[in-house]
Amino acid sequence: MKTSTDCETAVVDSIRSKGAGRMNNTRKTAWQGLHAVINEGQYASLWLRQHGLALSEEEKRWVTAVLYGVLRHREPLRWQWRDLVKRIPEAKVAVLLDMSVYQLFYLDKGTDYAVVNEAVKMCPQPMKGLVNAVLRQVLRRGQRPLPQPDSIENLALVTSHPQWLLNLWKAHYGEDKMRSIALADLEEAAVSVRINPLKLKAKELALRPDWTLQPNGWTITTTGNPVADPWLGEGKIVIQDRSSQQVALWLDPQPGEAVFDACSAPGTKTTQLAAMMDNQGSILACDLHPHRLKLVEEAAQRVGASIIETRMLDAACADQQLAGQQFDRVLLDVPCSGLGVLRHKPEILLRLTPEALDEIVGLQAEILNHCAPLCRVGGTLVYSTCTLNRKENDKQTAAFLAQHPDFELQDEKTFFPDEGDQDGFYIAKMIRRR
């Protein structure tokens, strides 16, 4: 049974109306993107940014839907055809089969044979027969029912989450929460937007009936498409998830204060800090890589934030590089495993291992230990991640506090993706008492 929407079908029909070749090229682009992400380790958002320039808006929407749809449902898609082959074909051909099944059962309504024929045309000569035979068998059989997710093994198949991760979440948050998180990760993430009061005035917002300001005073909802809205390019609005917006709100910087943002790229939270400070005071925004600092500078220029100074710095030895300096507020939005943003970045699960989690916990501890001295007595330190792993979150905070009795935990919270349309995040707010 297909699950395509009228909107998705309309996109396909519109592209096809411009010529069969146009639709074929769009399918080939999607296949190339999936191969780059799944088999070559690239990131979906970066690949789309680099290769989407030659696409129309409709084509880009379709390619994006296929790219993220296959990444989210890769195990259920392979379940539809892997019993029909003696061995899994080469990686790029396997991805083509996954993509074709996604089109057949999830996306392209009424185009079954076009999907099969185009897949056969695109694949290398030696594999055309196999691709044709497998996809026609898939069509004849119809959508193969998935097993009930009544066990860790079956839930891993249904949600494309590795069993080790489900077991970790079960141990950390309980079985019900583990299931709820994994199922929520299958949902397409909504585009969340916040205002930029440095450029957007209240009277302008009042003239837009399609925009609604939420009670927190920052998040706005819309009936339109914020990505295509002129306000985005003008810096009047910023794309930022609801949970991510909370990080700056917890830090609560005031106009005139000195703020240290240790891991600032790409600058979304940094520019929110500047807006909260009414562009008064100073923000030292740091990152280890110069190309990422450029993103911060571009974001600051776009939103009109002039109090942001960027500097290349290793946060794991920040106290040595900034010896003698202290700040009113310190933000440590540290590198993490990203398990809270799988709706936006499902490709994370392709590469993540339990060993990688342990490595990043050590890095986070170093950043905490070496940035803490930069917080003045009476100042605020916020530690945050976009992951769901207690070793990186509350246990990391607890270990830090045990070693630093001069800091006191004021509050901490885990934001879950199944509790409203938001990413998974963890935030801890600490005060330096002496």
Please describe what this structure looks like.
The protein is an alpha/beta fold. It folds into three domains: 6-141, NusB-like (N-utilizing Substance Protein B Homolog, Chain A, Orthogonal Bundle); 154-184; 240-432, Rossmann fold. Helices cover 49% and strands 15% of the residues. The chain is built from 20 helices and eleven strands. It has helices at 6-17, 20-39, 44-51, 57-72, 74-79, 91-107, 112-122, 128-141, 152-159, 163-173, 175-184, 202-206, 230-233, 242-251, 268-276, 290-303, 318-321, 348-351, 354-371, 394-403; strands at 193-195, 211-213, 219-222, 237-239, 258-261, 282-287, 308-312, 327-333, 375-385, 407-415, 425-432. The chain has a seven-stranded mixed sheet, sandwiched between helices. The chain has a four-stranded antiparallel sheet with strand order 2-3-1-4. Strand 6 (282-287), helix 16 (290-303) and strand 7 (308-312) form a beta-alpha-beta unit. Helix 1 crosses helix 2 (20-39). The longest helix is centred in the first third of the chain and has 20 residues, at 20-39. The model is unreliable at 1-11 (pLDDT under 50). Belongs to the class I-like SAM-binding methyltransferase superfamily. RsmB/NOP family. It catalyses: cytidine(967) in 16S rRNA + S-adenosyl-L-methionine = 5-methylcytidine(967) in 16S rRNA + S-adenosyl-L-homocysteine + H(+). This is 16S rRNA (cytosine(967)-C(5))-methyltransferase. It comes from Holdemania massiliensis. Its EC number is 2.1.1.176.
Number of helices: 20
**Shape estimate:** globular
Spans of at least 5 consecutive residues with low confidence = 1-11
Structural class: alpha/beta
Architecture (CATH level 2) name of the largest domain: 3-Layer(aba) Sandwich
CATH superfamily of the largest domain: Vaccinia Virus protein VP39
How many independent structural domains? Answer: 3
Q: Percent helix among the residues?
A: 40-55%
Overall residue-averaged pLDDT value: 92
Radius of gyration: 24 Å
Q: Which strand order does the major sheet show?
A: 7-6-5-8-9-11-10
Query: Quick one: how many beta strands?
Result: 11
Strand content: 5-15%
**CATH class annotation of the largest domain:** Alpha Beta
Query: Termini distance?
Result: 63 Å
CATH topology of the largest domain: Rossmann fold
Note the main sheet: 7 strands, mixed
Catalytic activity: cytidine(967) in 16S rRNA + S-adenosyl-L-methionine = 5-methylcytidine(967) in 16S rRNA + S-adenosyl-L-homocysteine + H(+)
GO molecular function: RNA binding; rRNA methyltransferase activity
EC number: 2.1.1.176
Main location: cytoplasm
